[in-house]
Amino acid sequence: MSKDSPSVPQTEAELEALKRVRRRRSIALAGALALFAITFYVLTIVKMGPAIFDRAL
After folding, report:
1. Of 17 and 8, the one with more pLDDT
2. Predicted pLDDT at 37
């Protein structure tokens, strides 16, 4: 293994730290994805304008 490759966690503390980092990263990615989806939803509504409410159902 090279010096740049991550080492395998040896202790319970290292494993718990790795889990915390992964969880934080997962939450950040979920938040970014939710923000992305909300942005597209809002932009779609804005682009359609008020005419979206005047259509026949």
Report:
1. 17
2. 97
